Amino acid sequence: MMKNSFFSILPFFLAADLMLPFLLAPTYKGYSHLRQVMSVLGASKAPLHSIYNLWLIIFGCAILISIFQCYPIIAKTSNVISIILCSIIFIYAIGGCILSGIFSVGETKNLETVSAKIHGYGSVIGFLLLTLAPLIIGLYFFKISKGLLGGLSLICFILAISFFALFIMADKPNYKETIIAFEGLWQRLSLLFMYCPIAILSLNITLKS
What we know:
By secondary structure, the chain is mainly α. The chain is built from 8 helices and no strands. α3 (49-75) runs antiparallel to α4 (79-102), α4 packs antiparallel against α6 (133-143) and α7 packs antiparallel against α8. It is globular, with a radius of gyration of 17 Å.
């Protein structure tokens, strides 16, 4: 169990990533959880931007350590599933977390600086790939005869894809005055359903150790 000790606390890091914006937002006057993405809290105008950016780097490093611990465990069942899943999470850790923490975003989606471009492209690639994680985890659970967990993972996959689609649509002019414009809400919900199967996988492996 000690060998997988870091992977076993990954659910804590995933929960903390979703909760931290709620702790930092009160210091940023005018910030809206419904309409603004989490990374805006790392913009230079945010009072505690350095804390949020540091967190993204720490979070990304925690994910990297965790996947190196979980890779050989999943590979015992399926080397292909292990390679695909760990590659997806690895790219998210680098693009969606570490690079996003080092290169801060602007107030809007306009990629006007090199930093904003690196942040923007890294996040998009990382988030897009992470939507597939629940599907791959679901396949793994079915392969080890954990049908209920496999089914839950597939439900999370459908919800993650749905909310991610809304997140992409949120800034389109046609939806400006509708509920679809709640970009921040859709980002948080899509992440929630991407993270849940990863947390379940971590707990399942930890309990088996």
